[in-house]
Design brief:
This protein has 1186 residues and is mainly alpha-helical. The chain is built from 63 helices and two strands. The chain has a two-stranded antiparallel sheet. The relative contact order is 0.03.
Length: 1186
């Protein structure tokens, strides 16, 4: 291969002369240099021009053409000499100064020498001779100028190749520089700021190119940049400038994460540290920045930086509300971008609905975020996508649960979410109704109640606002019904108070409404009436609402905030005539949405009766179709409406005929609801009498329609008592003499319901007849309870039916006495004791059914307080979950009752418990050692029985005793030894044993909790129906003291001596003598000693200070771990061998008789009977109708 001979430069002219001559020579030189090949050039031939070009007269020439050609020629020389430069360090600094200056002209494509400027740019880029600038000494200024000029001059409209070359120049400088000047880093990072990003997109793209292609080089500079600012911020209080810089750098990090995330490798852990800063502002900025970064759709940052992700999640519980708020604000975009994180984030978001923030800002943001998230996913949910339903379907319920917080401000947030986001007032009536049905059908029970509460509050607001506007209108000058000023002000104040009591800031709202009353603008009045007009379309209502707000802003802007809430609440944008028509259409035609539409329609009918009344004809017309599948639901809707608004029911012959059809040919449920509607139609008593008479004539226990007929009669009892009374005697005789002896479960219970509800109805209309009517009913119920549900002489009733009858009999007794003092007095002490034992029935469904009903009525204060003692008998309930529910209820009630300490309701409950305990069939004394007692010995309670009894007293103390009332409780228990039972037939001696047991346990608990027992200074009156004062010698035979009996006196008797010092010798002897067997006391003390010795290592470390800690057992009860430990201990004791018992130890719990009724439930026969609760659900859910 022939090696080409070196190529020499032929240009021999001197670079002198005027500008024109010099330019001509430079063009000739450039043409020759440009054509020369670097590989074969003879660089020695270039030395002359190389020297001449650097001459100051040439390189610093003022002519534009000369300068650019000089620059291009030098660029060619750098190419030909590469890789070595032919100039010194200072010469090169001059050269690059020329290059930088000349490249500024590239910005103007119309420039005379633009092609030469581009040639220079391309040459420096292609040959990479620009990297020589990075080797120069003290040349940072040149690099900074080069980078700054390129970022300033690059433009989106420039040719693509120009932009590429400019990018290359900056990239080469960044990559090759040993140490980048901080100013260059600042210039690059500045391009990511929001303003720069949109002012010069080309510069932004150049910065992104650098960030992604020079990641390794720029990472440490970016970290240092961020770290310097963060360190300054964390050093102390921030100045305004420092805070502004801190905000800027966080915004910069957010933008870098979008465009060049690789630069943040070391910055993100620094952000994690910021989350721990004590300064709230800095913590807030870090939380917000990370929230936006995690939300970036294309980057799985949460996976890449798990530690930072976990630290950020914890900010939802930050002590500063503003941090919690920005955390919540991040969730909408985060969940939208990363659905795989939805569950984890949603759980945290749900927690924030109830937040301790006093200003409620956190709750507001949580409600808003949930509503937005759901709205975004609603289309997928409506189309049935299971993933979206799982991730977002729960959110409307969670939002509506917030109404249970019972805070007006939070309620207004829920209002806003419901009326603007969950159910936006736009789209067709079909789509709006479909959305309403979809969301309503997805709500849980609490969510539905919350939703109806929102609607109900809106309905109430419309009533108040209508009254307010009418009152203002009545005071117009021309009005003839104007009130005198004093009466007007009084009425206005009352209406405003009722309105404002449900607004976020009642005082501020009151001022606003009084302010508007002074303005009394007629136009605004009409607009607000239009917002509440159900005859208007949604479009018209929205227009009225918008105009009303705009008008308020113009006449009284200071009241706009209050009226915005009011107008949103009163406007019929969610439920109106259009929606009701569509719901009725769904009930008639849509199989998919019939049930949900029917449920919603039924609820709406009661909240918006005026709107629903206009659609009654539509509903009744549906019922005329014999094959209408939604008949039951529609009848239910009409029945509920009829009970509330009887005068609004249709009275036409066709409507009555349609309803009568369901009495003859419908199901039991359909007949029930149809009867309610007919009974509530005005002037329809005669038809109801005819119905009752026809049923009376065909009553037969073998009839296939007996249950249906009894159901109809029950509704007549409740809603048309006059009609029922015309056949009452024969129907009652049939129930008592035939039906209850027939062993037919549902029919017998329905018969009992008729008897019970008739007694209730008569009490309201004819109290004299009610007394006569209720006595046989009570007698029948007590018989069922005492005989275990058996009424038939042959005693062949199956166990399932007996359990149903026991439960219903007990619940009917409770129902009869509910808020009816007259009937409550008819329940004797012995009958009350028999009722209490049902709480220990063998069947769990019976126990649960009675306890649930008692708790329900006690919670609403509809039942006598003595029923609290009944719940204490659940101490031996074998179902742990249910026992804990009852305990929680008792704790709650004790706190409520404690508010009125003068009544001593909590404390006197123990006296009633002691009465039940003393008369309990399992609390009976035994002969000593199981043998016949000698004549001088008195039977005593076994240790086994006493241990069982301890559970009841401890259950009471766990739930109702505390350091505040323990002395009073002790006094009451001691006082029981100064009385006897009011009923001479009851075993008073058992009471004294229970009293001693209670005193011992109270003392024991006081020591363990470091409670102080003091002498109670006041007087207590025990329940007179249970106890009477102790006579002088009337009990000596029964009590039967004997010195030969091994009994023990304890310290707790000392106070009893003081209490009863004036009651005579027998009284003193009873008060001071202990009735507890010494065996039990020693065993109890032995167990206490063992507990101390076997205390855990943790208890020993805590020392005596922890042991002395005073703690209310009520609060301890709420500690789940403590409860679990207790039940584990019970389970472990039950498993121990009987052989392990010893004399010095408290005998372990037996297969307890007191709980045996409950234990048998698990054995065999009664399992099926646990459905008894289901059988009586109708009575529970429809108390008034059953």
């Amino acid at each position: 291969m022939v090696t080409p001979s070196p190529e020499k430069l032929h240009f021999r002219q001197k670079l002198t002369g005027n500008a024109s001559e010099l330019l001509k020579k430079l063009k000739e030189l450039h043409t020759e240099l440009k054509a020369m090949d670097q590989e074969i050039v003879d660089t020695s031939s270039l030395s002359s021009v190389t020297k001449q070009l650097i001459d100051s007269s040439v390189i610093n020439h003022k002519d534009k053409g000369v300068r650019i050609y000089v620059a291009c020629c030098i660029a060619d020389l750098l190419r030909l000499y590469a890789p070595d430069a032919p100039y010194t360090n200072n010469n090169l600094k001059t050269v690059f100064g020329l290059f930088i200056d000349e490249l500024r002209h590239i910005v103007n494509p119309a420039a005379l020498y633009f092609n030469m400027y581009y040639y220079l740019l391309e040459s420096l880029s292609a040959v990479k001779s620009i990297i020589l600038i990075t080797d120069l000494k003290n040349a940072d200024g040149l690099m900074i100028d080069l980078v700054r000029n390129i970022f300033d001059d690059i433009r989106p409209q420039q040719a693509k190749n120009v932009q590429v070359c400019m990018t290359d120049l900056v990239r080469y400088v960044v990559e090759e520089a040993n140490q980048l000047p901080q100013e260059i880093v600042d210039i690059i990072l500045a391009q990511f700021l929001h303003k720069q990003k949109f002012d010069n997109p080309a510069a932004y793209r150049l910065a992104c190119e650098l960030g992604n292609n020079c990641t390794a080089k720029l990472q440490r500079y970016v970290f240092q940049y961020f770290s310097d600012i963060v360190s300054a911020a964390g050093a102390g209080e921030l100045s305004n400038k420092a805070l502004a810089d801190f905000k800027t750098v966080h915004q910069l990090v957010i933008e870098l994460n979008k465009s060049a995330p690789g630069l943040l490798l070391n910055v993100i852990p620094q952000l994690e540290e910021e989350l721990k800063f004590s300064d709230v502002t800095l913590r807030t900025l870090a939380t917000k920045a990370l929230g936006e970064m995690f939300a970036e759709k294309t980057i799985p940052l949460a996976t890449q930086y798990d530690s930072t992700w976990r630290a950020w999640l914890q900010r939802r519980n930050d002590k500063a509300p503003q941090v919690r708020v920005v955390w919540i604000e991040s969730l909408t975009n985060l969940i939208k971008s990363h659905k795989n994180l939805a569950k984890e984030l949603s759980d945290g978001l749900g927690e924030k609905l109830v937040d301790p923030d006093e200003k409620k800002v956190v709750s507001k943001e949580a409600i808003n975020a949930l509503s937005v998230l759901y709205s975004q996913a609603h289309a997928d949910i409506e189309s049935g996508k299971q993933a979206s339903i799982f991730q977002f379907g729960w959110m409307p319920s969670a939002i509506l649960h917030a109404v249970y917080i019972n805070d007006n401000e939070v309620f207004s947030f829920v209002d806003n979410a419901v009326f603007t986001t969950l159910f936006p007032p736009n789209g067709s009536v079909i789509s709006r109704t479909q959305r309403l049905v979809t969301i309503f059908s997805s709500l849980d029970d609490r969510g539905r109640t919350g939703f109806l509460s929102v609607l109900r509050r809106g309905a109430d607001a419309r009533v108040y606002m209508a009254a307010y506007l009418q009152l203002l209108k009545s005071q117009e000058t021309s009005s003839s019904i104007a009130l005198d000023p004093e009466e007007y002000e009084k009425k206005l104040g009352a209406i405003i108070k009722a309105t404002c009591d449900r607004l976020p800031d009642p005082s501020k709202s009151s001022i606003a409404l009084h302010k508007y009353a002074q303005v009394n603008d007629a136009k605004l009045q009409q607009l607000m009436f239009d917002c509440m007009d159900s005859s208007l379309s949604l479009k018209e209502i929205k227009r009225a609402s918008k105009e009303a707000l705009s008008h308020i802003e113009s006449i009284a802007p200071q009241i706009l905030e209050v009226f915005s809430v009011l107008i949103q609440r009163i406007s019929l944008t969610l439920v109106n005539s259009e929606v009701l028509s569509e719901l009725i259409k769904n009930v008639g035609e849509s199989e998919e949405h019939r049930e949900a539409s029917g449920d919603l329609l039924r609820s709406i009918s009661l909240i918006f009766p005026a709107i629903f009344e206009k659609h009654l004809t539509e509903v009744t017309s549906l019922l005329r179709d014999p094959g209408f599948a939604g008949a039951s639901n529609s009848l239910h809707t009409l029945a509920d409406f009829a009970k509330q608004f009887p005068r609004s029911m249709p009275v036409g012959a066709k409507a009555k005929e349609t309803l009568r059809f369901f009495l003859d040919s419908g199901t039991v449920v359909q007949a029930k609801h149809a009867t309610i509607v007919l009974a509530n139609v005005s002037d329809n008593v005669e038809m109801c009498r005819d119905i009752a008479a026809s049923i009376q004539n065909r009553l037969d226990v073998t009839s296939t329609r007996l249950l249906l007929d009894l159901t109809i009669l029950l509704q007549l009892v409740l809603y048309s008592p006059q009609a029922f009374e015309s056949v009452a005697s024969s129907v009652i005789a049939f129930i008592i003499k035939k039906l209850l002896m027939s062993n037919t479960a549902e029919q017998e219970i329905m018969g009992l319901k008729i008897l019970v509800n008739r007694a209730i109805v008569l009490l309201e209309s004819d109290s004299a007849s009610a007394h006569d009517a209720v006595r046989p009913v009570f007698k029948l119920l007590w018989t069922i309870i005492k005989q275990g549900g058996e009424l038939v002489e042959d005693k062949n009733t199956n166990e399932v039916l007996k359990s149903h009858l026991r439960l219903n009999a007990a619940r009917f007794v409770v129902k009869l006495t509910r808020n009816r003092p007259v009937y409550e007095k008819m329940v004797s002490v012995s009958d009350y004791g028999g009722l209490a034992l049902v709480i220990q029935d063998p069947v769990f469904g019976v126990r649960q059914g009675l306890a649930a009903r008692v708790m329900k009525y006690l919670r609403s204060k509809e039942l006598h307080i003595r029923y609290l003692a009944v719940l204490v008998l659940a101490a031996h309930e074998p179902e742990l979950g249910w026992r804990l529910d009852i305990r929680s209820f008792l704790v709650q009630q004790s706190k409520i009752q404690a508010n009125d300490s003068k009544l001593m309701l909590n404390e006197l409950t123990l006296a009633r418990v002691m009465h039940l305990l003393a008369n309990h069939p399992d609390f009976v004394p035994k002969s000593l050692a199981g043998k016949a007692a000698p004549g001088d010995q008195v039977p005593v309670h076994s240790v086994e029985d006493l241990n069982l009894a301890v559970k009841y007293i401890e259950f009471y103390l766990d739930t109702m005793a505390n350091s505040e009332n323990i002395s009073l409780i002790y006094y009451i228990v001691s006082l029981l030894k100064t009385v006897r039972f009011a009923n001479p037939g009851e075993p008073t001696r058992n009471l004294y044993v229970a009293s001693d047991l209670g005193q011992y346990l109270i003392q024991e608990r006081s020591r363990s909790h470091n409670w102080t027992l003091t002498s109670y200074p006041g007087q207590v009156k025990l329940p007179g129906e249970l106890f009477v004062p102790l006579g002088q010698d009337e009990l000596s035979a029964e009590v039967g003291f004997s010195e030969s009996l091994e009994l023990v006196g304890v310290d707790c008797m000392n106070e009893a001596k003081v209490i009863n010092s004036n009651s005579g010798d027998l009284g003193m002897q009873i008060a001071t003598q202990s009735f507890l067997p010494l065996e039990w006391v020693r065993a109890r003390e032995s167990r206490a000693e063992r507990k101390v010795k076997t205390g855990t290592g943790m208890e020993k470390k805590m020392g005596q200070a922890a042991k002395r800690r005073s703690r209310s057992p009520s609060s301890a009860l709420e500690d789940d771990e403590g409860i679990a430990d207790s039940d584990e201990e019970i389970a472990s004791r039950a498993k121990r061998s009987k052989k392990s018992k010893s004399v010095g130890r408290v005998p372990e719990e037996p297969k307890r008789r007191m709980a045996s009724r409950a234990a048998k439930a698990k054995a065999a026969a009664y399992r099926d009977a646990e459905t008894s609760e289901e059988a009586t659900d109708d009575d529970e859910s429809g108390e008034d109708s059953m």
